[in-house]
Amino acid sequence: MVIQISIHDIQVGDILHLEPGDIVPVDGIFIEGHNLKCDESAATGESDAVRKMSWLECERKANEQEQSKGQQVHLPDPFIISGAKILEGVCSYLVISIGENSYFGRTMMALRTEPESTPLQEKLNDLAEMIAKLGSIAGLLMLLALLIRYFVGWRFGVPDQATTIVLDIMKILIVVVTIVVVAVPEGLPLAVTLALAYATQRMLKDNNLVRVLAACETMGNATTVCSDKTGTLTQNKMTVVAGTFGATFEFAKKPTESSQTAIAQIPQQVPKEALDLINQSIAMNSTAFEGENEKGEPCFVGNKTETALLQFSRDVQAEHYNTLRTRWPVEQAYPFSSERKAMATVMQYSDRNQKTVYRVHVKGASEIILSLCSSVLSLDQDHARELTTEDYDQVERTIQTYATRSLRTLGLAYRDFDHWPPNGTNEEGDVPYEDLVQDHGLTFLGVFGIEDPLREGVPEAVRACQRAGVVVRMVTGDNLVTAKSIATQCGIYTPGGEVMEGPVFRKLSPAEMDRVLPRLQVLARSSPEDKRILVSRLRELGDIVAVTGDGTNDGPALKMADVGFSMGIAGTEVAKEASSIILMDDNFSSIVKAIMWGRCVNDAVKKFLEFQLTVNITAVILTFISAVASTDQKSVLTAVQLLWVNLIMDTFAALALATDPPTPELLDRDPEPRTAPLITFKMWKMIIGQAIFQITVTLVLLYSSVLNYPTESVVLQTVVFNTFVFCQIFNEVNCRRIDSKLNIFSNILANKFFIAIFIICGLGQVLIVQFGGAAFQVIGLDGAHWAIAIVVGLLSLPIGVIIRMIPDNVFGFLFPNSETRKKYLGTE
After folding, report:
1. Distance between CA atoms of residues 215 and 583, nearest Å
2. What GO MF terms are annotated (predicted)?
3. Measuring CA to CA, how many Å separate 631 from each of 283, 627, 628, 711?
4. What is the per-residue DSSP string for 191-245?
5. How confident is the model at residue 175 (pLDDT cuts 50, 70, 90)?
6. Predicted local distance difference test score (pLDDT) of residue 474
7. Closest by CA position to 280, among listed 342, 201, 361, 346
8. How far is the CA of 505 from the CAs of 473, 513, 560, in angstroms?
9. Which entry of 48, 228, 543, 603 is annotated as an active-site residue?
10. Angstrom distance (rounded) from CA 712 to CA 717
11. pTM beyond cutoff 0.70
């Protein structure tokens, strides 16, 4: 009895039944059935049908071979692997491995490698460790200084009770621990996580589905993008716009020369027998069919190249493809192979004399198909004639002409055999493809020029990448001339650039690759393995590489790249699993948005660091000086006040500065190298400059007679606390820019989080000062004191302008080494 169960319930030892069209869910051994052929392209990358034998049949064949002691030949195997598709036949098979132990499961598990630390993560870890050490040292020094001062004070009298001593030391410890809490950047992971989470959420609206969180910031520093052509740079909406039947009959969708015939006029200009032969080749040697789109409208479904040819047949009013497929049985099919760049179908056919022949229709890369032909279709003589040197040269010129117009060229040919198989079968019982094209005996039917228009905005997106210092390379299976032409339209190929074919590139030595790669812009006639080699070599040279891919075979390249982009529409599940980001619209322009978001994340982290280090330095120094100078070892900023400052510095600042949206000006700079410092010199200028300003004004308020209050006055200490906090609030606005540009208010209204947090921090400070009382050790202030705090805080903005206007090279003496000077100042 056969029952249906979920694939999740399959166990080892079960016997499953498979029919054509089924996807194999688990590994097993073929035990019963007939004529079984599988598509194992998920494992091998090639879509050739693989014949399978049952276990008993394999055992019998192996015994026969052993007994005959003849030459050992390869026999079909009985193993059915998960991920394969059943093309022909039916079978029952015994399950031998499931889940992560199956072939498909092991492949998927292999993709779950431990992610490498990104450059930003490594720098942040080092910085956090350094700041934690410095904060701990500052706390230890403060503890020693306050304890020494406390015990020195005993010369004026020792406390009467031990509890008093313990309480005094506890107060010192509280201040010290608070300083360490403020100094240690515990808000740094929060800022990074917030920036990445916010970016991934917003990137989805830009058609980037982020699967690996770290890919966001890595993409910001990408130095090169290796992009597919079809569907990514182009629309993948293919149409026949030109072509040639035989060697000389030219047609075009929009004729530009008198020698060309309009496609609509072909039925009147081409003999019916010749047109029927060409239509037969299109219909029979194709897997596309008629279906419906999302709107329920009729359309052709399948490979886009094949649907373009079927549409051409409809345009020339040829016989319906389904009628031909029903009339003529198919003997054998040879699916497209990236190795031979062709596909073929063998059909049983009755010629005009009612004689049964076996006709082979071949379709593929036009120059390859032409090289396999010895004759050509003659429209005038109504039969094939010898392919002369002049014919060959003429067709080659036609192919080159189409290629320079960025058209994908496709050649059609056929051949008749009196019997089948022509030379017997191989050990596996199949007719090798080589037997079909032996002796170059094909008849050339014609070449089609198929247009795949560029996606809207692709040239602009490529220019944006180049403006951002990102090298764009096109990796395609098209021939060299077509690839070069399309790359030129996109703006990828430029004068002086290198265009190379995959097989040539693959044979280069590492040293030769290193010489070619800086100029390589287009890799044509390439395979997924060529793409993997390219990505691997670029990474070894220090590039941060992004790559696009849609096929199962693209998995290794996608996984090897720093950022792998898979196609959301055309991509296979394996490609998506191997990728870091999925392009939901398969559009190259979405990669540019990913670069912008990546740089935005990097900038967000740097903005937060600039703000946090300013607070750290100011708070630690101010607390240290005021505590040591105080007669009772009390800091002007109490522990509770410092915790409020810490809340502003960590949580609120992280939210405010990590949520700035990206702007096009992010693409006006080159990507940062891996060795670039996390804190640039411009940032250090702002950090130290603002810290000096804040320390100066708070110490002046505290120890001068400006306010005419004693140092221990609660009013004075409240004013100092209030001023210090407003300096931080207004400095948040300063930290929105980490470059030398003066407009710190640029695009500020686009960040609702920043506006809200700025208001919350201001209102929170007002409530704490006016109503915090004993809890915060403050007292309500009058209007004059509020004016002092707010005005001094506002001075952070003009001080920021002054600091930005100081040229970086003024500080060149701090970096005597030219490499260090270039690293931090960007100058030699």
Report:
1. 13
2. ATP binding; ATP hydrolysis activity; metal ion binding; P-type calcium transporter activity
3. 98, 8, 8, 10
4. HHHHHHHHHHHHHHHTTEEESSTTHHHHHHT--EEEE-STTTTB----EEEEEEE
5. confident
6. 93
7. 361
8. 14, 8, 19
9. 228
10. 7
11. yes
